[in-house]
From TrEMBL:
Domain Helix-hairpin-helix DNA-binding motif class span(s) in chain numbering: 72-91, 107-126
Key words of the record: Cytoplasm, DNA damage, DNA recombination, DNA repair, DNA-binding, Hydrolase
Record region (Domain III): 146-203
Gene3D superfamilies on file: 5' to 3' exonuclease, C-terminal subdomain (1.10.150.20), DNA helicase RuvA subunit, C-terminal domain (1.10.8.10), Nucleic acid-binding proteins (2.40.50.140)
Role this protein plays: The RuvA-RuvB-RuvC complex processes Holliday junction (HJ) DNA during genetic recombination and DNA repair, while the RuvA-RuvB complex plays an important role in the rescue of blocked DNA replication forks via replication fork reversal (RFR). RuvA specifically binds to HJ cruciform DNA, conferring on it an open structure. The RuvB hexamer acts as an ATP-dependent pump, pulling dsDNA into and through the RuvAB complex. HJ branch migration allows RuvC to scan DNA until it finds its consensus sequence, where it cleaves and resolves the cruciform DNA.
Location of this chain's protein in the cell: Cytoplasm
Protein known as: Holliday junction branch migration complex subunit RuvA
Organism: Nocardioides taihuensis
Pfam family, one: HHH_5
Family membership: Belongs to the RuvA family.
Record note on quaternary structure: Homotetramer. Forms an RuvA(8)-RuvB(12)-Holliday junction (HJ) complex. HJ DNA is sandwiched between 2 RuvA tetramers; dsDNA enters through RuvA and exits via RuvB. An RuvB hexamer assembles on each DNA strand where it exits the tetramer. Each RuvB hexamer is contacted by two RuvA subunits (via domain III) on 2 adjacent RuvB subunits; this complex drives branch migration. In the full resolvosome a probable DNA-RuvA(4)-RuvB(12)-RuvC(2) complex forms which resolves the HJ.
Comment field on protein domains: Has three domains with a flexible linker between the domains II and III and assumes an 'L' shape. Domain III is highly mobile and contacts RuvB.
Length: 203
């Protein structure tokens, strides 16, 4: 298994990145939040999880080991495949997911596209003793994203997850007032994306 990839980012698309490792370009499927941290031509190290199928080998990449382990763990619940697991870590922080499962919070889980009430209840039942308790990590605000066109990156990420451009713009407008700083610096794309996803899930 490939535990991580480390190399130069050769390309970034709406759903994946290509990382050049030893002259070989490895395509890694990533959430919009992870993709927002990558820059073409810059070095990157991504923890990865390999999903093996009869006709394919797919690498999923993550922003950190915690997100990777959460992705792998939620797949132990029946009916949760890699695509749904990726959607879960795209919408919910690992600690938010642990808190939702620990508190039987079906509403929070159903914010994830593809998870209905019955699936959410099954996830809670099967993962309650596996995910562990929330860590309640405290921390400062994430560092601002380097890219100036943060809005278009967030919109592309939302559209890539299945929402329309109109709905994406509406959600971005709603959360922008809370994430754009007074000094005009670009907000963290991952933070804006998660906030927009939460806003869309309420609609």
């Amino acid at each position: 298994m490939i535990a991580y990839v480390s190399g130069t980012v050769a390309a970034v698309t709406l759903t994946s990145a290509v990382v050049e490792v030893g002259g070989v370009g490895l395509e890694v499927q990533c959430t919009p939040g992870t993709l927002a941290t990558l820059r073409t031509g810059h070095p990157a190290t991504l923890p990865t999880s390999m999903v093996v199928r009869e006709d394919s080998l797919t690498l999923f990449g993550f922003v950190d080991e915690e997100e990777k382990s959460t992705f792998e763990l939620v797949q132990t619940a029946s009916g949760v495949g890699p695509k749904l697991a990726q959607a879960m870590v795209a919408v919910l922080e690992p600690d938010d997911l642990r808190r939702a499962v620990a508190h039987d919070d079906v509403k929070t889980l159903t914010r994830v596209p593809g998870i209905g009430q019955k699936v959410a209840q099954r996830i809670i039942l099967e993962l309650k003793d596996r995910l562990g308790a929330p860590t309640s990590r405290a921390g400062g605000a994430p560092a601002p994203a380097a890219a100036a066109p943060w809005r278009s990156q967030v919109q592309e990420g939302l559209v890539g997850l299945g929402w329309s451009a109109r709905d994406a713009d509406r959600a971005i407008d709603t959360v922008a007032r809370d994430v754009v700083t007074d000094d005009g610096s670009a907000p963290d794309v991952g933070v804006v994306l998660r906030a927009a996803l939460r806003q869309l899930s309420k609609a």
